[in-house]
Design goal:
Blueprint: H1 2-9, H2 19-22, E1 38-42, H3 55-64, E2 69-72, H4 82-103, E3 108-113, H5 115-125, H6 144-148, E4 150-156, E5 169-170, H7 185-189, E6 196-199, H8 215-219, H9 221-243, H10 313-333
Parallel strand pairs: 1-2, 1-3, 3-4, 4-6, 5-6
Length: about 325
């Protein structure tokens, strides 16, 4: 149990985000202009309120897509009460998504890093992850009406990563995350799979069962995949507008209001006590080294030149030290 809590305590990117990326400046619920997109972003554990380090992806897309808007999910993002924090994040993101789609008809893009990645995926298809208890308010997927407005979703270092996510996994991970998702099939059933990218590399201790000595892998997805993520989102925005020729920028879309899908929840068990890691199943794996996997955008999609945001060497060292300290404290208390 001590090891499990210590593992949870390390789900942190606290010191990696610099002041600019964490700032809440620019967060707005306003509808975007025609041709634009609206971002809803969930930061990583213990990052300051705002967009967090994955906000760099949002910034790069907004620079290429004029008239776009963005807002940050307001949730605890804590480690000391991770399960309740993550659930609160899902509640908060669902509220933002549903409020936006009720007011605006332009496409929506969701982003999340680490705990924020799990929040994002749970928002889309429901919180059905190993070790998480049933929660009637957030177990269901979003409605078909809402999901139709989602142009893209990008997550990095998702603790609920499951190796059966081969349809939208980017990277070379072959082992489940800490809380493997039990409803991956809903991404296919809801037609989300082609609009989602989940970045997870082998050795990541949170999304891929790696050792904590390799935590650097979890902290540096932007270095390896920011350009790919930006180009993917740009392509999906273009595809969304092409698929919605009757788009009306002044009114919410009048699509079907079909109810959410509600699959039966398997018995939730912590990783290692009832879930066996898969030895394969990564359709996007192209090599054994970290960062060699990935899905390249089609040549006919727009592309952007992006300089990855690193957050600084000093900040990165601070994050590693913070994680080690938290692990030690939790192990001592138990």
């Amino acid at each position: 149990m001590a090891a499990f809590i210590a593992t949870t305590a390390l789900l942190s990117l606290a010191a990696v985000a610099n002041a600019q990326s964490s700032n809440v400046t620019g967060s707005t619920s306003a509808c975007p202009e025609y041709g634009g997109v609206h971002f809803i972003v969930a930061r990583a554990s213990t990052e300051a309120p705002g967009f967090g380090i994955i906000g760099a992806v949002k910034n790069a897309v907004v620079a290429e897509v004029p008239g776009s808007t963005a807002e940050a999910v307001d949730y605890p993002a804590t480690l000391s009460d991770y399960f309740n924090s993550e659930s609160a994040g899902v509640d908060a993101m669902k509220e933002l998504v549903q409020s936006y789609t009720a007011r605006c008809s332009a496409p929506l893009v969701l982003l999340g890093y680490s705990q924020g990645a799990q929040v994002t995926m749970d928002t889309l298809v429901g919180q059905m992850d190993a070790a998480f208890a049933a929660n009637d308010t957030i177990d269901d997927s979003e409605s078909v009406h809402v999901l139709d407005q989602v142009a893209a979703a990008v997550v990095m270092g998702d603790p609920s990563f499951n190796t059966t996510e081969s349809a939208f996994h980017v990277g070379n991970a072959t082992i489940h995350g800490l809380f493997p998702r039990q409803n991956v099939d809903l991404f296919m059933q809801t037609d989300l799979a082609s609009r989602v990218r989940s970045y997870c590399d082998a050795g990541d201790p949170y999304c891929a069962g790696g050792n904590f000595s390799q935590v650097i892998i979890h902290l540096t997805y932007l270095n390896r995949y920011q350009t790919d993520a930006v180009n993917f989102i740009l392509g999906e925005i273009k595809d969304w507008y092409a698929a919605h020729p009757d788009y009306n920028s002044t009114e919410p879309s009048a699509c079907s209001t079909s109810s959410a899908l509600t699959p039966s929840r398997p018995t939730a068990t912590p990783y290692g006590t009832g879930v066996s890691p898969s030895a394969g199943g990564n359709a996007t794996k192209t090599g054994g080294a970290v960062g060699t996997g990935g899905v390249l955008p089609p040549t006919n999609r727009p592309t952007a030149s992006v300089t990855p945001s690193t957050g600084g060497a000093a900040a990165l060292k601070g994050s590693l030290a913070t994680g080690a300290l938290l692990a030690g404290v939790f192990a001592f208390l138990l």
